[in-house]
């Protein structure tokens, strides 16, 4: 199941930064960034009690939660990093996602938070 609050393509670095700057209790950071293409294929969403590693799934044409951990898990962030590293080793990215420049526009700044809470 994909996260409906995110676009149906990889994000740009600027879009991830924009998500991080929104006024909510969510920290957002790129987990897999291709600078030559300015494309982010994996993102960390971190809150005080839970973290998510979210990846772009080309087959589903959307973003999905790869791994989620509660803050009480030992080395919780390392668990997320390992999941992304393993996913990236097998991932192949299509050139069609290199073209085009649009922005993520959320009317509701908590859209991503609500979307993640459902997972």
TrEMBL record:
InterPro entries: DUF7964 (IPR058270). It comes from the Archaea. Residues 3-87 form the DUF7964 domain. It holds the Pfam family DUF7964. Residues 1-30, 100-119 are annotated as: Disordered. This is DUF7964 domain-containing protein. It comes from Halorubellus litoreus.
């Amino acid at each position: 199941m994909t996260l409906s609050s995110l676009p149906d393509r990889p994000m740009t670095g600027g879009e991830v930064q924009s998500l991080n700057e929104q006024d909510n209790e969510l920290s957002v950071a790129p987990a897999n960034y291709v600078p030559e293409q300015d494309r982010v294929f994996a993102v960390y969403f971190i809150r005080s009690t839970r973290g998510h590693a979210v990846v772009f799934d080309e087959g589903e044409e959307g973003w999905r939660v790869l791994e989620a951990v509660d803050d009480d898990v030992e080395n919780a962030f390392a668990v997320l990093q390992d999941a992304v590293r393993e996913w990236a080793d097998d991932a192949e990215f299509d050139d069609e996602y290199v073209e085009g420049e649009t922005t993520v526009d959320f009317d509701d700044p908590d859209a991503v938070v609500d979307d993640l809470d459902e997972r």
